[in-house]
Amino acid sequence: MHTSSFQQNILAELDHELATTRKLLERVPYDKADFQPHPKSMKLWQLASHIVNLLAFKQLFVQADSRDFLDPNGPKPGPTPSSSEELLARFDQYSASLRQALQDSDDEQLTGSFRLHRGEQTIMERPKAAAIRIMGLNHSIHHRGQLSVYLRLLDIPLPAMYGPSADEQGW
């Protein structure tokens, strides 16, 4: 009987989600960067960049025990990508770094606690594996869903995500 670890499960899920996310990001048109479906919504390019930058945040969950948003020396995302090629290159770089950090971890490390806070105020504290799944993968999937709506509103055909898309079916 084969026993699966936290690390193996997260890596398998990550691989699937990264491939799906990249397919969607490949379709984001830089010339529509300022599109926003509602005044309270992020602009298209801001949303796509946020999805990419979340990969670095997930890596932090693996490699650190906490992150204080008030720490001026804390990790911050790089400058906003200025082209589709730059966006995808950052996605590939951050994906590879996150994957390597997970491969270098083990279940003991992933059961350790991670605390996200703003000074003394705790925003979230949970085991690293749960933080990766909830604030990492699920958070990215949520924003990827938003991104798919933006693309639909721009009449850009959507790729398959969890099965064929209406565009791929010719509907």
Plain-language structure description:
This protein has 171 residues and is mainly α. The protein has helices at residues 6-25, 44-63, 84-103, 107-111, 128-153, 166-169, and strands at residues 66-68, 113-118, 121-127. It has a single domain, classed as Up-down Bundle (Four Helix Bundle (Hemerythrin (Met), subunit A)), CATH 1.20.120. Strands 1-2-3 form a 3-stranded mixed β-sheet. 25% of the residues are buried. The model has no long low-confidence stretch (mean pLDDT 91).
Layout of secondary structure:
Blueprint: H1 6-25, H2 44-63, E1 66-68, H3 84-103, H4 107-111, E2 113-118, E3 121-127, H5 128-153, H6 166-169
Parallel strand pairs: 1-2
Antiparallel strand pairs: 2-3
Helix pairs in contact: 1-3, 1-5, 2-3, 2-5
Pfam families: DinB_2 (PF12867)
Organism: Hymenobacter rigui
InterPro entries: DinB-like (IPR024775), DinB/YfiT-like (IPR034660)
Helix count from the secondary structure assignment = 6
Strand content: 5-15%
Number of strands: 3
User: What form results from the Cα inertia axes?
Assistant: globular
Regions with little confidence, pLDDT below 50 for 5+ residues? none
CATH topology group: Four Helix Bundle (Hemerythrin (Met), subunit A)
User: What is the CA-based Rg, rounded?
Assistant: 17 Å
The chain-level structural class is: mainly alpha
The spatial strand order of the largest sheet comes to 1-2-3
Helix content: 55-70%
What's the CATH architecture?
A: Up-down Bundle
- The average pLDDT score comes to 91
Give the CATH superfamily: dinb family like domain
Largest sheet, in brief, is: 3 strands, mixed
CATH secondary-structure class: Mainly Alpha
InterPro entries: DinB-like, DinB/YfiT-like
Protein name: Damage-inducible protein DinB
Domain DinB-like: 14-147
